[in-house]
Amino acid sequence: MPPTMPTYAPGQTRKRNVNDVLETLGKDGDAKNSLVRVDFNVPMDGDKITDDSRIRGAIPTVKIILESGNNAILMSHMGRPKAVQKGEDDGTQRAALSLQHVVPTLKELSGADVAFVDDCIGDSVKEAVAALPKTGGSILVLQNLRFRKVRAK
Question: What pTM did the predictor assign?
Answer without folding.
Answer: 0.80
